[in-house]
């Protein structure tokens, strides 16, 4: 019976964590560039149970031998195996602000190890050193004339340098060239990740590579095509209706496990307080 407690408890913990992921997705349904998290639940390996007994061999000395009778498999519960971001393209939202820029995925190579398509990001200067990456193109110009993201991180060019524009009167071509009065002043930095599942997702829609290593530039990458759209931002790719359905399913699964746990608790209560008195 105690094994049943553990099995039900693992189910409740897994569904609670899934609920937290789904509620976070729904809370960011209107966050520009947000990539929804996806979770996978997996069961622990089954345990094979068998009963051990003795068998009497009818001999003069009456020999007894040990015998194992197979009972069957016992499930040992489930766990939340991993959480991965969904990097599909979000819808474009027109803002008519020149500092708002959206990334449009074109052709993306498939990673042979993971089987997933690569993706692209804006390059940002991380305050702790190295680079951070984001799909949120809701940029502004700070007091010194530098292009920054909503958290004040500097947007980088394809050369890894800060982009200084002085004011919002600039044009951005679809191939990433930033023009002021018809003259190119920089090329907006765009990084490519062949396997984005290995990236570390942080707060405020930021991603970082393992050990802070820099991702390669998306410009000139074999098989990679993309475009940039000024006056637009990429919206969240959260499907609110699907997330709500999954949230209700997870809640009901949690409730079902909870009722089973209560039944176990009542059975143990009778075993201890009633049967134990006989």
From TrEMBL:
GO cellular component: bacterial-type flagellum basal body
Pfam families: Flg_bb_rod, Flg_bbr_C, LlgE_F_G_D1
Principal location listed in the UniProt entry: other
Domain annotation Flagellar basal body rod protein N-terminal: ranges: 5-35
Sections of the chain in a coiled coil: none
BP term (GO), one: bacterial-type flagellum-dependent swarming motility
Keywords, ordered alphabetically: Bacterial flagellum, Cell projection, Cilium, Flagellum
Entry-linked InterPro entries: Flag_bb_rod_N, Flagellar_basal_body_rod_CS, Flagellar_FlgE/F/G, Flg_bb/hook_C_dom, FlgE/F/G-like, LlgE_F_G-like_D1
Domain Flagellar hook protein FlgE/F/G-like D1: from-to ranges: 118-179
Domain Flagellar basal-body/hook protein C-terminal: 229-273
Subcellular location: Bacterial flagellum basal body
Similarity annotation: Belongs to the flagella basal body rod proteins family.
Name of the protein described by the UniProt record: Flagellar hook-basal body protein
Species annotation: Ureibacillus endophyticus
């Amino acid at each position: 019976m105690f094994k049943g407690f553990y099995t039900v408890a693992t189910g409740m913990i897994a569904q609670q964590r899934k609920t937290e992921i789904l509620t976070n997705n729904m809370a960011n349904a209107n966050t520009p560039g947000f990539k929804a998290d996806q979770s996978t639940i997996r069961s622990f390996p089954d345990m094979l149970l068998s009963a051990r007994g003795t068998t009497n061999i009818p001999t003069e000395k009456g020999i007894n031998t040990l015998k194992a009778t197979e009972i069957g498999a016992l499930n040992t519960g489930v766990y939340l195996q991993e959480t991965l971001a969904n990097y599909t393209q979000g819808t474009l939202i027109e803002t008519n602000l020149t500092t708002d820029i959206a990334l449009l995925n074109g052709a993306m190579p498939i990673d042979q190890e993971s089987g997933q398509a690569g993706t692209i990001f804006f390059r940002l200067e991380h305050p702790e050193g190295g680079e951070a990456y984001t799909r949120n193109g809701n940029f502004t110009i700070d007091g010194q004339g530098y292009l920054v993201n909503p958290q004040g991180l500097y947007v980088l060019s394809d050369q890894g340098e800060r982009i200084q524009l002085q004011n919002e009167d600039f044009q951005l071509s679809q191939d990433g060239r930033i023009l002021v009065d018809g003259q190119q002043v920089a090329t907006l930095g765009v990084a490519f990740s062949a396997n984005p599942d290995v990236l570390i997702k942080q707060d405020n829609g930021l991603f970082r590579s393992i050990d802070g290593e820099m991702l390669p530039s998306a410009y000139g990458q074999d098989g990679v095509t993309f475009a940039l759209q000024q006056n637009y931002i990429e919206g969240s790719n959260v499907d609110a209706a699907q997330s709500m359905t999954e949230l209700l399913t997870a809640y009901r699964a949690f409730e079902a496990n909870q009722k089973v746990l209560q039944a176990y608790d009542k059975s143990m209560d009778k075993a201890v307080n009633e049967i134990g008195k006989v």
